[in-house]
């Protein structure tokens, strides 16, 4: 791929030096591109967007522009600080934040944030800073009208629809696999109301729609290389309307599991309350003044709901013959299903303690 040609679509000034591919991320193709201008190197992130996953990439970019512009208006510190707290996208001479190449591929670019890094591990300090990063993201967007955003993945966290689809797929049992997940399937049937609790509250108007990130892994927060303090939230493709508890819950599901989400040693699977506490300290303390009392009261449920939803999603894919999630071995989705089941099971026992920790940081 001629990235110099792509850079020309965005009229990047200076002499093209070179590029390197960034291997993290499973959807888009990402490159770090360097240009030389005014006696120094200037770095940019250039991405080829996966239009198979994102059917309306222009709508995705419209969401991102609206959200980042809103955040930028909220950053009141020095100009240099502002450059590091929010993504700044590149624009074509026509004023668009995306471009198509001659083959119809969809591209975008943004300024690389200097001296930044991401971490895949989730120790206590990283959980704290990730909580601050996503909390600041939520706080800046707390007065943004989420209903004006394009829904890039419809019903992404509609737990009721996720479970209804699972039950329908299980009824067909096309691949004769239900016998391998009978315990987990019965658990979701018997805990339907709890798993759908946030969805029900949203339908009743008890919880407000917020701008949600929908992929709140700790490696989607840029951290300062020297201090490891949170700088900016990245990977904004799935920004759309949702509940604050969804983002909180998915961060906990991924980061506060004592082990990785596909570890087959299920005895290792449990909610690490120290990591949970660290994330709450960063996230809840940051957003508490911009959330409703009902949101804070029910925030802890997000962790359980998101975990139960992933049980349903992994199990659905397993029963359908592994058509959605990338798998590394034949029973990968089965292992994921059981791993997340044990996490949900452990969370259920700790819900009261989880709520107390949230309320502790809400004061």
Structure in words:
By secondary structure, the protein is of the alpha+beta class. The protein has two domains: 3-114, Phosphorylase Kinase, domain 1 (2-Layer Sandwich); 124-362, Aminoglycoside 3'-phosphotransferase, Chain: A, domain 2 (Alpha-Beta Complex), CATH 3.90.1200. 46% of the residues lie in helices and 14% in strands. The chain is built from 13 helices and ten strands. Strands 1-2-3-5-4 form a five-stranded antiparallel β-sheet, covered by helices on one side. A three-stranded antiparallel β-sheet has the order 6-8-9. A hairpin with a 5-residue loop joins strand 8 (221-224) and strand 9 (230-233). Helix 4 (124-140) packs antiparallel against helix 9 (244-255) and helix 9 packs antiparallel against helix 10 (273-287). The longest helix is centred in the last third of the chain and has 31 residues, at 332-362. The chain starts with a helix and ends with a helix. The mean pLDDT is 93.
SSE layout and pairing:
Elements: H1 3-9, E1 15-22, E2 29-37, E3 40-48, H2 57-74, H3 79-85, E4 99-100, E5 106-111, E6 116-117, H4 124-140, H5 159-172, H6 182-190, H7 192-195, H8 197-203, E7 210-212, E8 221-224, E9 230-233, E10 240-242, H9 244-255, H10 273-287, H11 293-298, H12 301-319, H13 332-362
Antiparallel strand pairs: 1-2, 2-3, 3-5, 4-5, 6-8, 7-10, 8-9
Helix pairs in contact: 4-9, 4-10, 5-12, 9-10, 9-12, 10-13, 12-13
List key phrases describing it.
363 residues, alpha+beta, Aminoglycoside 3'-phosphotransferase, Chain: A, domain 2, 5-stranded antiparallel β-sheet, 3-stranded antiparallel β-sheet, 14% strand, globular
């Amino acid at each position: 791929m001629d990235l110099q040609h792509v850079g020309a679509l965005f009229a990047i000034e200076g002499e093209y030096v070179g590029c390197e591919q960034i291997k993290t991320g499973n959807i888009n193709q990402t490159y770090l591109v360097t240009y030389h201008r005014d006696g120094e190197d200037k770095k940019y992130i250039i991405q080829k967007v996966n239009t198979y996953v994102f059917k309306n990439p222009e709508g995705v970019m419209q969401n991102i522009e609206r959200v980042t512009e809103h955040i930028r208006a909220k950053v009141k510190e020095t100009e240099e600080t502002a450059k590091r707290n929010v993504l700044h996208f590149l624009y074509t001479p026509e004023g668009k934040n995306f471009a198509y190449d001659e083959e119809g591929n969809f591209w975008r670019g943004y300024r690389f944030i200097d001296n930044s890094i991401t971490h895949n591990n989730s120790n206590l300090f990283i959980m704290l800073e990730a909580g601050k990063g996503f909390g600041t993201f939520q706080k800046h967007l707390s007065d943004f009208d989420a209903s004006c955003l394009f829904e890039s993945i419809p019903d992404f966290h509609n737990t009721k629809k996720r479970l209804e689809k699972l039950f329908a797929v299980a009824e067909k049992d096309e691949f004769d696999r239900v016998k391998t997940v009978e315990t987990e399937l019965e658990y979701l049937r018997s805990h339907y109301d709890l798993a759908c609790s946030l969805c029900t509250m949203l339908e009743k108007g008890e919880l407000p729609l917020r701008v949600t990130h929908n992929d709140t892994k700790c490696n989607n927060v840029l951290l300062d290389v020297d201090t490891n303090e949170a700088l900016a939230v990245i990977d904004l493709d799935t920004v759309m309307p949702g509940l604050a508890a969804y983002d909180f819950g998915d961060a906990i599901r991924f980061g506060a599991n004592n082990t990785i989400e596909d570890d087959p040693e299920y005895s290792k699977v449990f909610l690490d309350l120290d990591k949970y506490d660290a994330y709450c300290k960063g996230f809840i303390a940051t957003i508490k003044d911009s959330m409703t009392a009902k949101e804070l009261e029910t925030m802890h449920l997000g962790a359980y709901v998101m975990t139960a939803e992933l049980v349903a999603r992994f199990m659905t894919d397993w029963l359908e013959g592994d058509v959605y999630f990338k798998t590394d071995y034949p029973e990968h989705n089965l292992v994921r299903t059981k791993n997340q089941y044990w996490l949900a099971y452990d969370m259920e026992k700790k819900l009261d303690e989880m709520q107390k920790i949230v309320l502790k940081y809400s004061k």
